[in-house]
């Protein structure tokens, strides 16, 4: 694996290899557990053209715990504001002597373009490209499932919310189906495109109908910026039909695992008592994200 551009087409063996590696990185650099030197002498660039808190910090911390030097880039105040192109910016950063680029961009396929234009030794990691994919988020979601429930194969996982615009949903679908999970996508009909069925998932527009069958619920963020285009009647209606509160939880399996890629809108996708309750693994996802991203960076650094 020279780059991590997406999870589409990745085999179950390849995915499990990353998860097995992540197990070894859990807790590295925390307390008495020493940092590692897998990336000693390497330079990792966080090239983020979209706002991010969790993903940027997680990649930066993961790289530092592996001994790398980290360079953070933001388009505000850079030559991008003067008209410099995406590729020219990346090529100029490359000329400083770098080894990896973690890129987030609003344009689908931006990481693929970088992989073609940068030198062969520079590894590219997709940290989210438009509505295409967000591979490390899906990896940490599924790693959390594996740690909490002991397996992925045979589980039923519900992805709830804005499937149409969600890169997290796409990456999860590719990986979960490859690993043998049953995937149900659920949300307003305007936010669940019918063509998603070609990926082997079940489509539902009533959460209460499928909730009792789910072992895992992954609650996608309502993108308020999309509400201006009238894709669903109101936030209140969304909360009533697809939000998870204490009453709805009583219809689910008692041990259902709740995930959310964050940031969450408390009181919309999920109420505070459920987000902070015993079924929630939201903070575990953040912790597990570090181990997964260390595994990805380490694996890429060893690629021929």
What does this structure look like?
- The protein has 304 residues and is α/β, with parallel strands linked by helices.
- The chain contains twelve helices and nine strands.
- The protein has helices spanning 12-25, 54-65, 86-94, 110-117, 135-149, 167-178, 207-210, 224-227, 235-242, 246-249, 272-275, 282-301; strands at 43-48, 69-73, 100-105, 123-129, 156-160, 182-186, 202-204, 216-219, 257-259.
- α5 crosses α6 and α5 packs across α12 (282-301).
- The longest helix is centred in the C-terminal third of the chain and has 20 residues, at 282-301.
Sketch the topology as an H/E string, one letter per element: HEHEHEHEHEHEEHEHHHEHH
Helical content, roughly?
Answer: 25-40%
The CA-CA distance between the termini, in Å, is 8 Å
Radius of gyration, in Å, reads 19 Å
- Mean of residue pLDDT values: 93
- The number of strands is 9
Regions with little confidence, pLDDT below 50 for 5+ residues: none
Q: Give the structural class.
A: alpha/beta
Strand order of the largest sheet: 7-6-5-8-9
Please work out how many helical segments DSSP would assign: 12
Tell me the major beta sheet: 5 strands, parallel
Residue fraction in strands? 5-15%
- The shape, in one word, is globular
Keywords:
alpha/beta, single chain, five-stranded parallel β-sheet, 304 residues
